[in-house]
Amino acid sequence: MERLTIGKAAKMAGISTDTIRYYQRLGLLPDAERLESGYRVFTFEAVRVARFIKRAQALGFSLNEIKELIAFRQDSGTSCRDVKNAATRKVAVINKKIEDLSAIRDALSGLIRTCERGGGAVCPILESLDKEEKS
Length: 135
Known about the structure:
Order of helices and strands: EHHEEHHHH
Radius of gyration: 24 Å
Number of domains: 2
Helix content: 55-70%
Number of helices: 6
Oligomer: single chain
């Protein structure tokens, strides 16, 4: 079984050595074996998990959510339904963010239109941001 230095493992996973150490501190990657020289050595499985983490992050999963996905991956009793439920929850969070961002975009677009119509002596965007909230 080939053992990899942290640099080689990081390069194969497409991440930095600091990221590998960070993932280890969070418990996403297991601690590496240490040689008598003190060097850490990693297995190809650690590289595979690091790549898994990167792909999950690209789909928008947080590191805490990824920790759950890794646990699912390691638990032979995990059903596809468990993983589907986690993905479904993530889609709901993403949909909420899209809704919130759409509302922000619409509000800013409205302020820009007001500004383009000539809002007067004070910039309507700044004036809007300066208004006190009504309770």
